[in-house]
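Thread: quick sanity check before group meeting

JM: Hey all, I'm pulling together slides for Thursday and realized we never actually wrote out the predicted structure for the chain we discussed last week. Dropping the sequence here so it's in one place. If anyone has concerns about the input, flag it before I start.
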Amino acid sequence: MVTERPGRLRLLSAEGDTLVESLSGLPPVYASGQSGLFEVLPSPQFEQNQQLFISYACGDWDANHTCLAYGTLTDSGLEAVTEIFRVKPAKHGDAHYGGRLAWLPL
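JM (edit): ok, ran it. Output follows.
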């Protein structure tokens, strides 16, 4: 999977060929300047639950945040997408905090 700043999440083959141009079901992404869709991270139990975590900018020029959500990958895209974190307070503009995702060891 590859994220693209404007809000596309592409599915690629192991050889790098595009299998899906853009998965459906992503939340609205504020894409301007440095803000946009940041990272995708499979759940540690991805093979059992098909869950993906995504970080992205949400909001607009006047009030935007870094957000974190997860959803379930299906044949038709992401389903049951739920926001689980939002940086507060909101900020103005399109310079951004970033949204790196990584699992820490237990």
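AS: nice. Helices lie at 46-49. The radius of gyration is 14 Å.
JM: adding both to the slides.
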